[in-house]
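Q: I have 70 residues here and want to know how they pack in 3D. Can you give me a structure?
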Amino acid sequence: MGLGDLVARSEDEYLDLAAKFAADDARLTSLRSTLRARFLTSPIGDELAWVRHWEAAVSAAWQGRVAGGH
């Protein structure tokens, strides 16, 4: 969704990002006005593709289990 700068890799980084983001009124306003469009045009907003990907992952896990894998 183009929001990689909001991904934290630790709890401390999360807290730092949250504090900075909460204090940035312009960024919050911008995000609020674009979030729906970002979601709908992102891969996660494509429900059918997401479900097909999920089905493939579950099927692969099941086939691995049936074949004796763990």
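Q: Anything worth noting?
A: Residues 47-66 form the longest helix (20 residues). The mean pLDDT is 90.
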